[in-house]
Amino acid sequence: MNQFLETKIEFLKGVGTAKATLLNKELHIFTFADLLWHLPYKHEDRTKIYKIIDLDENLPPVQVKGLITRIEILGEGSKQRLVAYLTDGSSEMELIWFQGIAWVKKSLQLQVTYLVFGKVQFFNNRFSMVHPEIELFDETAKQQTGFLQPVYHTTEVLKKKFISSKVIAKWIRTLLEQPQFTIEEFLPSYLVEQYKFLSPTEALRQIHFPQNSEQLHKAKFRLKFEELFLVQIKLLSQKTYRKIYYKGQVFQNTHLLTKFYNQHLPFELTNAQKRVVKEIYKDMTTGKQMNRLLQGDVGSGKTIVAFLSMLIALSNQAQACMMAPTELLAEQHFHSLKTYAEKLGITIDLLTGSTSNRERRIMHERLMNGNLKILIGTHALIEDSVQFENLGLCIIDEQHRFGVEQRARLWQKTTSDIYPHILVMTATPIPRTLALTLYGDLDLSIIDELPKGRKPVITAHRYESHRLRVYEFLRKEIKAGRQVYIVYPLIEESEKLDYKNLHDGYAQIKKVFPEYEVGMIHGKMSSAEKDLEMQRFKRNETQIMVATTVIEVGVDVPNATVMVIEDAQRFGLSQLHQLRGRVGRGAEQSYCILMTDYKLSKESKIRIETMVRTNNGFEIADVDMQLRGPGDIMGKQQSGMLNFLIANLAQDAHILQEARHHAQAILDKDALLTHPEHQALKQHLEKTQKEATFWSRVG
Ligand code: ADP
Ligand code: MG
What is the pLDDT of residues 116-132, one digit of tens each? Predict the structure, then answer.
């Protein structure tokens, strides 16, 4: 980047120190470059002037030109409003103000031509605009019409100091008109030719002040591609770098795996499971560190794959650990893996926040002297001072709840000088665009097949008036020997969780089903209490489990066949899908019943309909991303990585695909970017890399 772009913003004509300080604080704008990258979030169409007679409520904000013929003040108190009648020869419309009435009244002139801009409504049988932008029409002033006007994000503080979108636009225009303003091309020339990209300089000009809609699209395309491409090339070069430089232990031996496979495997693996185990084994024999993501829908059987992978490490005198996001889940993994491990006489233990210091000390010792082979735990596993004698494999379940840094901290857990192999599992399917961004540096394995004999869960939407029939249905299922979950949403009020719904529900269920045992589980219980309740349910000592979403993740009771979700409209899509995944785990037909009010928001309706329509987690994840945006569906920790300046993962999947493809192709040819045609790119990456680390230190 050149010096011009790095100039401090206070040196821009019309800004000065006071406004510069505001821009720093409010919008993180420090330099000319920052201002130029403050992109408009939309453009208002000033290319056209509409006739009143042609207006339509469904139009975006539009321009109308006409004379004001009279002005009235109507209504009283808070309803008081000023109405100006505008006519353009085709018809008449109302311009309405609720605020600043006196001032507007004084400034409006009758019988002169105005240009107004605003959102059209149709009310009381005529068109109107509330609080339109209005200015005298000036035949000679070119800026008034014939262009797409950029609209910039500002803040209340800035607006008070008269730094409006229009002012920002003016500043940016000034910058763009400076002869020093240029940005050097850093994409390889063959890509520029192939896609006929605008130059970076032109793209930035057109994104702010497009000549026309086509130029705007071209600018967006270039900038989106560039943004996604840079992320992909960074991720993929990390991956390439690791592949070249990071050694991994070579795990050739498989005797424990073979023994378990031949003698103790509780079911036949699906083809997908077999394929994935092979992929993992292959990684572990290459002498390079494995960094693999295992994606599979709920119930696809990732746990056994995890265990078989551990056995590969253990067959080679190494240890393995597995980290889960909640205590409940860690405990459950511990219980299921323990039954497997015992068959082979393998030692296994559990480390969570509730593990006592005394137990910890013993555990530490056994890990260091190699007597303890498998450790399951929560993030206590990273925080603890625990070290392994020879950690060969780390498995991270439900990775998206852990930050990338936490992942890296697990690497340091071994006294061996070679980093452990890493297997990351996600139970929540995530859209491909997100996977490529969040886990773009990992190799990907997918279990895309459910165990044989699984029947897809039947999902139904029911209203309050069906409640008795729903209870009848539950009774029938329990009579047939099955079990039922009933899940209540927690109501969050001023950060306190309200358990009233749950307790009321529990009392009601006990009354309705006096002949059965009802259990309850929620987040306020200690993990020992939760564990006890879960174990009782697993042993079918309770037939109905009333719960909050603590059972959302990973809980496995194959005999449970019905999942009732109360107030289902309150849950997000991925949560609903996770909850539904708690049933349909055995051979029996399972059901998910979504109870809701009659009144549903448009979004809730889409969520419920999606759940009823499909069991496919990837499809559901996609709808979820369209509804909520990529940042929200992955939670705070990752939203930073998913919030792009201009690209949008929910909409730009195809651009991402292309960007990824080219990034990979470049690294395949030129892993360290030494070719002359990649020098500009390399420099650009080094520059932005420096900035990124600088800002992460400041932030
Ligand atoms: P998830 O992928 O959601 O973690 P789990 O590993 O918990 O799924 O497996 C779900 C259930 O399916 C468990 O009860 C598990 O024992 C069972 N299971 C896994 N693989 C198979 C298979 N190949 N055949 C039959 N049952 C299987
Ligand atoms: Mg699981």
Answer: 999 999 988 899 999 99
Are β-strands 319-323 and 443-447 bridged in parallel, bridged antiparallel, or unpaired? Answer: unpaired
pTM of the model: 0.77
Tell me if 208 is assigned to some domain.
no
Its domain, for residue 607, covers 458-614
Interatomic CA distance for residues 421 and 373, integer angstroms: 15
Which residues have CB under 6 Å of ligand 1? Answer: 267-270, 273, 296, 298-304, 427, 451, 554, 556, 558, 585
Q: Are residues 491 and 406 in the same domain?
A: no
Residue 52 and residue 130 in one domain: yes
The best mutation among 300, 578, 583 to test binding of ligand 1, ranked by most ligand atoms within 8 Å of the C-beta, falls on: 300
pLDDT confidence of residue 693: 42
- Ligand 1 atom having least distance to the Cα of 304: 6
CA of 428 to the centre of ligand 1 (A): 15
Ligand nearest to the CA of 587: 1
466 and 410 in one domain?
A: no
**Domain match, 350 and 486 both:** no
Do 487 and 594 fall within a single domain?
yes
Same domain, 560 and 609: yes
Residues 463 and 374 in one domain: no
Q: What is the pLDDT of residues 309-329, one digit of tens each?
A: 999 999 999 999 999 988 888
Using the mean position of ligand 2's atoms as its centre, give its distance from the Cα of residue 672 in Å.
38
Q: Which of 411, 426, 441 is the last residue of a domain?
A: 426
Atom number of ligand 1 nearest to Cα 298: 3
**Cβ partners under 8 Å of residue 85, min gap 6:** 68, 69, 70, 71, 72, 92, 93, 94, 95
Question: Which ligand approaches the C-alpha of residue 306 most closely?
Answer: 1
Distance 607 CA to ligand 1 centre (A): 26
Q: Which of 96-105, 138-147, 345-354 has the lowest mean pLDDT?
A: 138-147
Q: Among 572, 592, 614, where does a domain finish?
A: 614
CATH code of the domain containing 542:
3.40.50.300
Q: What is the dihedral of CA 591, 596, 598, 604, to 10 degrees?
A: -100
Q: How far apart are the CA of 512 and the centre of ligand 2, in A?
A: 33
CA 397 to ligand 2 centroid distance, Å? 7
Average pLDDT of the residues of the chain: 89
Position 237: which residue type?
S
Scored b (16 or more CB within 10 A) or e, 458-471 reads ebebbeeeeeeebe
